[in-house]
Amino acid sequence: MADITRVAGLRHLRGSPTAHIRHLRHGRVVHEGISLSFWFRPLNAVLSEIPVDDRELPLLFHARTADFDGCDFRDEWRGAAGALGCTAFEM
Q1: pLDDT computed for residue 78 by the predictor
Q2: Which residues of the chain carry a pLDDT beneath 70?
Q3: Predicted pLDDT of residue 22
């Protein structure tokens, strides 16, 4: 996760090595890449942070059947995210 610090009306972003960061100003890409560090003005900046490391998230679904029995489904979602979203999916 990126760290943003304030200094006199400006902000400084320091990205982590596990995040792809994209900085847009007036609809144009100004900075883009992994583990960036740059100054920006918060009033005209759009920042996006996309994880590039593997993520594991637990899933839990609870449903009722036609005879009102409870049914639980538990699993773990594992995905490797890339710069344009999820590139690998495994369940």
Answers
A1: 64
A2: 55, 77-91
A3: 92
49 has which bridge partners? 21
* Residue 85 exposed, middle or buried by CB count within 10 Å (0-12, 13-18, 19+): exposed
What one-character DSSP code corresponds to residue 35? S
Beta strands in the chain, from DSSP E residues, in sequence order:
3-7, 10-14, 19-25, 28-34, 37-40, 45-51, 54-64, 70-82, 85-90
- CA 80, CA 14: separation in Å to the nearest integer? 23
End-to-end CA distance of the chain: 25
Residue 26 dihedral angles phi and psi, to the nearest 5°: 55, 40
